[in-house]
């Protein structure tokens, strides 16, 4: 009986694979050699260190480090597109890093609303309606009340005459700025400006802008006027405007630096009235 030979399928596959490797190996080798060159064009530019800009930014962020708490009275103006401005008198107490209390005062005395933060939660007690809200602290903490993306920590910095800066950005001096005494930019790893700060002749911040990756301002902060209290130089007026044209202006009327502030005032107890968490 004659035996029939089964074709060697594995042998044919091996021959085909070897042929394909021989055909494409030179192409793959060229691609591998070219890859580092291509990646070098996509890598972030090497941004030189700007010592002067870094020093200025450190002073902006730290301000006078001896100022750690305050109480003040202020007038607040809220501006909204196509709506009348709203005016409030407010008593504010603040303590670093994220303790804040604001009492919106009625024309006849007393508080109509209390907003507070104990560093981990944000509270709102609306006395007239009995509503009480509590939520974890996070990005845009105060946007519900101001219409602007702003955190408790940022508002505290503003009220202490400081400008918050994202540490992941790189500081550099703005070249050729003739309209302002001094300008510093904070750029990302792609050298795209993400924040621009203007200072007066004494290197005190008077204006700051936060920018998107296309250079469009997201928020603009203005410090105007100045007052010196117990050696601390502070802005009289703080104005923050968003790209949406929502705006808040705080005019300081009385300011008490470094008072003895109990942390207990920054926590509100709503009992069973909590509407939201």
Derived structural class: alpha+beta
Strand content: 35-45%
**Separate helix tally:** 4
> Percent range for helical residues?
10-25%
Largest sheet: 14 strands, mixed
For the largest beta sheet, what order do the strands appear in spatially?
7-8-9-10-11-14-15-1-2-3-4-5-6-16
Mean pLDDT: 83
Number of strands: 16
Which sequence of SSEs, written as H and E, runs from N to C? HHEEEEEEHHEEEEEEEEEE
Rg calculated over all Cα atoms: 29 Å
Inertia-based shape:
globular
Spatial separation of the terminal alpha carbons: 87 Å
Q: Which spans have pLDDT < 50 for at least 5 consecutive residues?
A: 1-9, 37-42
Task: Describe this protein's structure.
This protein is of the alpha+beta class and 277 residues long. It contains four helices and 16 strands. It has a 14-stranded mixed β-sheet with strand order 7-8-9-10-11-14-15-1-2-3-4-5-6-16, with helices on one face. The longest helix has 34 residues, at 9-42. The radius of gyration is 29 Å and the shape is globular. 24% of the residues are buried. The model is unreliable at 1-9 and 37-42 (pLDDT under 50).
């Amino acid at each position: 009986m004659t035996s029939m030979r089964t074709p060697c399928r594995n042998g044919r596959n091996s021959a085909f694979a070897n042929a394909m490797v021989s055909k494409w190996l030179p192409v793959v080798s060229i691609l591998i050699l070219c890859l580092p060159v291509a990646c070098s064009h996509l890598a972030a530019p090497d941004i030189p260190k700007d010592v002067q800009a870094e020093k200025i930014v450190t002073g902006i962020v730290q301000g006078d480090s001896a100022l750690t708490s305050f109480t003040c009275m202020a007038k607040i103006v809220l501006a909204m597109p196509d709506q009348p401005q709203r005016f409030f008198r407010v008593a504010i107490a603040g303590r670093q890093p994220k303790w804040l209390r604001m009492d919106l005062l009625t024309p006849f005395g007393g508080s109509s609303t209390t907003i507070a933060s104990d560093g981990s939660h944000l509270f709102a007690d609306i006395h007239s309606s009995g509503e009480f809200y509590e939520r974890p602290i996070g990005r845009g903490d105060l946007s519900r009340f101001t219409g602007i993306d702003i955190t408790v920590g940022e508002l505290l910095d503003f009220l202490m005459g400081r400008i918050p800066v994202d540490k992941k950005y790189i500081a550099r001096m703005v070249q050729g700025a003739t309209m302002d005494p001094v300008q510093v930019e904070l750029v990302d790893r792609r050298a795209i400006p993400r924040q621009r700060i203007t200072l007066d002749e004494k290197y005190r911040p008077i204006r700051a802008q936060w920018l998107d990756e296309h250079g469009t301002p997201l928020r603009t902060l203005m410090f105007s006027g100045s007052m010196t209290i117990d050696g601390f130089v502070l802005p009289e007026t703080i104005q923050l405007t968003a790209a949406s044209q929502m705006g808040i202006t705080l005019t300081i009327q009385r300011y008490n630096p470094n008072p003895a502030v109990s942390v207990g005032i920054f926590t509100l107890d709503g009992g069973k009235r909590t509407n939201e968490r």
